[in-house]
Amino acid sequence: MRRFLGDRRLPALVAVAIVVFAFWRALVGGGSLVSHDLVATAAPFDAHRPASYTYENGPGDPINIHAHWEPLADDIRSGEFGWWNPSLGGGQPSLKAGVPIFNVGYLFAPGWFAPGLVAAIRALVAVGLMAGFLRAIGTGRIGALAGGLAFGFSGFMVGWMNWPHSSIAALAPGLLWALERAIQDPRLRRSVPIAAVVAAMVWANFPQVSLYVLLGAAAYAVVRVAPELLTGDRSRPLQLALVGVIAAVLMVGLAAPHLIGFSEYLDWADTSHRGQGPNDSSAGAEYLLSALAPSVWGADAVGAPWFGEGNWVEFNTHLGASVLLLALAGLGAGLVDRTRRSVTAALAVVGLLGVLIAYLGGPLGTAMDSIVGSQGGLMTQAKVLIAIAAAAMAGLGVDHWASSWHEGDRSHVRSGVRLAALLGSVAGIAMLPSVRHWFQAARAAGTVEESVATSTVAVLAALAVVGVLVARWRRWVRPSAAGWALVSIVAFELLFFAMPVPTIVSRAERLHATPAHAVVQQALDPGERLAGEGRTFFPATTSHFDIDDARG
Q: Omega of the bond prior to 186 within 30 degrees of 0, cis?
């Protein structure tokens, strides 16, 4: 058993197994993942949806996603593809939805299978890139796996599943990984991975999220090299700056076809600049409470609101109580460790930027709004930075507590715990007004008991983490056993949140063409599209039946 647990391939196998398990109904169970992708589909949110709600009468967003990719893949396979072909998606140019590298799955997978396959691949890439970044900063395999899972199944990745937001976010750890390698060894060839990752983010086409990620990456690089600037050694920072300039030039070349077309079609659909500002469009600090448990506010995106001001994916973020505790442990341990201090401080700054922009607002929020433009008056997509930082620091925390300590090192462990407790206490005190705000709103809506009840798993996960850390401190468990136990807790809590969210249609429920579809096909002349305000057929499935659809 010890030899099996020490196998270098085990973390990778565990990551693949967890992703397959999360999407098993869509991947191996014969089910089809409908590209609805809103947390409103999951318990307990679905209990607050009106009884009259059906997917047929649901939001038009699914049509803008899945129904775009399948006919686009058909065009590519038939050789009729044009760079900015306006014949798809209700006249929306074909590349307006970008070209996320994950959506290559549509080229070779059946239409009913592709959404689940793409979602699984994206999650696995997010886990793998975060694990690779953590390995690059010296984290062990178990800690890297924990951090990867924490990010791949975070609220941002799950809430925006199959949207361009998550396609960009999944690549973000890869940018930090490429940057870290350049910081450690600033050779000119290090510019190539940086340029490739950024270009892939540009092609995925959600500029706001890309700019937030680039802001976080720039902050990370500055904090990482700051110690050398302070000592007067500017040779490596100058080399890194040259690498950055070359990477920018290469990126523009790689992304040029998309950038040129995008500038022409800037006013189309969701990726356009829709700011009313400059203004401060953060959500408010009280919504940070959703990082602990997804049901704290529970606003439903498509039905009657449970309570709260906005839909789940925009306002709320979910990191997991276990991830937050481990991130706090990693922050404390990293700041007292000279070898990891700059890395830990850089990750903390990345997370702080996300908090400031998405939830606290102020001058930074106003400045960013003037640059990127708010989406419907919100800047909460900056919470991607919070997910990145928390997941990475949680990986550092697991690595620290899964390491073998010598007797003399226990003083450093104790110092890290004290610092983490201090920082956690400061954050808790700062959140007291938000807790009071939440309690008043929940009591007015009559949802206090329900909110607490649906947060049971988060509380149990937090207690389990504390139990493992105490057992590790008292040497009741081996370091590797403690590490795997923490990975299990993180995976259980996040899968408990993530698995109900994707809308899975079983094999028996999968839609088939009906006589009504045949009537519409015969009525449409070549080049005509199905239009109208109503939802004539199940959203996002008309493309299955070769019906061009102009809705959405």
A: no
The answer to whether the CB of 191 falls within 8 A of the CB of 244 is yes
Question: Quick one: angle between helices 479-498 and 456-473, nearest 10?
Answer: 170
| Size of the chain, expressed as the number of residues it contains | 552
Alpha-carbon dihedral sign for residues 298, 430, 452, 417: positive
pLDDT tens-digit map of 271-289? 544 444 445 667 888 899 9
**Would you state the structure tokens that stand for residue 314, as one six-digit string?**
């925009």
Share of the chain above pLDDT 90, in %: 41
In degrees rounded to 5, what are phi and psi of residue 128? -65, -40
DSSP for residue 302? S
pTM of the full predicted structure?
0.88
Grouping H, G, I as helix, E, B as strand and the rest as coil, residue 303 is coil
3-state secondary structure 118-184: HHHHHHHHHHHHHHHHHHHCCCCHHHHHHHHHHHHCCHHHHHCCCCHHHHHHHHHHHHHHHHHHHHH
For the segment 16-33, the average pLDDT, to the nearest whole number, is 89
In the block, which residue shows the tokens 């890139």?
129
Nearest alpha carbon to residue 484 among 2, 26, 69, 160:
2
Q: Which tokens go with 437?
A: 């705000």
Q: In angstroms, rounded to a whole number, what is the distance separating the alpha carbons of residues 45 and 57?
A: 18
| Burial class (CB within 10 angstroms; exposed 0-12, middle 13-18, buried 19+) of 261 | middle
Ranking 18-27, 180-189, 377-386, 483-492 by mean pLDDT, the lowest is 377-386
Other Cβ atoms within 10 Å of 260 Cβ, number: 11
Is there a contact between 48 and 303 (Cβ–Cβ < 8 Å)? yes
